[in-house]
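re: ur msg from earlier - yeah i can do the nickel (II) ion complex, just paste it... oh wait u already did. ok heres what im feeding in:
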Amino acid sequence: MTIREILKMGDVRLLRVAPPVTQFDTDDLHLLISDMFDTMQAVDGAGLAAPQIGVALQVVIFGTDAPNLRYPDAPQVPRTVLLNPLITPLSPQEESDWEGCLSVPGLRGVVPRFSHIRYTGFDQYGDPIDRTVAGFHARVVQHECDHLIGKLYPMRIRDFAQFGYTEVLFPGLDASKDD
Ligand code: NI
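and the outut:
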């Protein structure tokens, strides 16, 4: 069990474009993914991208097999390991909702995302993933994959009147942990 340090906004390593994974099912890759799950679970996050722990590779994880305490009302997203992802919006329709990020602790902002997407990629064994999703699931995927092109959610905010401290915006929420 290894919990890795999560880089915070301002660290230039979060701004890099990550190269694709070229070798699947390797010991290094399995160790990276295991560390990422340990790290995400330690802070009860909804997802994590490899660049957030300083690893420049197109690897994201998200979802859980149990309800997420940070988003108790959110529909469940299956536990997923996604490498070399490609996102295709299925319509121009967007929806706006609150997001947080482990690399931007203590803050939340309203971010527009495509409502319906198809995403493809591979799991850690090189088996293809091809899903059509909507709503919260689509939002999580778009947020995590943005980390692979050096984008943090504040860069997607259009209305900065809807950006602030979690403890102020949502006083009832347990602020001891951030997402
Ligand atoms: Ni994030």
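cool cool. The longest strand covers residues 80-89. ping me if u need the other ligands too
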